[in-house]
Specification:
The complex is a heterodimer. By secondary structure, chain A is mainly alpha-helical. Helices cover 54% and strands 6% of the residues of chain A. Chain A has five helices and two strands; from the N terminus they run E-H-H-H-H-H-E. Helix content of chain B is 80%, strand content 0%. Classes of the chains: A mainly alpha, B mainly alpha.
Amino acid sequence: MKNRIHVLRAERRWTQAELADQLNVSRQTINALETEKYDPSLQLAFSISRLFGRPMDEIFLYEADEPPANP
Amino acid sequence: MTARISPAGAERQAGLHIIIAAVAYLLLRAGGQHYIDAGATGPLRIALAALPALPVLWMLWSVHRYLSRTDELHRRVHMEALGVAAGVTAACSIVYGLLEESAGFPHLTARWAILVLGLSWVASGFLLWRRYK
């Protein structure tokens, strides 16, 4: 699944650590999300959506023929 | 009530607890054995022999607490690593049990299985993390 977390974070000039702190996850988790090596749970995806003030489908893009990052 | 703690803080705290528990285990084991060898008998002997289990139980509780406090990716990696470690421990136990019974290998206590489980958990966790870096 593709996402725009890196772009949205950069727009706000937040570091990965600052974003991690606001979402109460580790910096490694933010890095794994931004590099699209990990797909977040629905709960974390909602938290990200709420934090950035954007609907989920503007942040996450699912392509049907693409294998999931964490099967 | 559980205090709110960051995933990094939970990891540091769990690491510290595991180190303290390991040191306490070694001290209680050595101290208890000293008094057992000196002739402790009856309920005292049983208590001294069982005492090192307390820090091990505390370590297990610390790991449980860490897993409940950490974030979803860390929890996922740790649980996968624990599954791999359980498989490695089962394989080692079966192979060594056969070697001990039929090939004359020296007898090892069941406590070695815990050491194998712990080491293989750390090693598999390290390898699984590489997937997300």
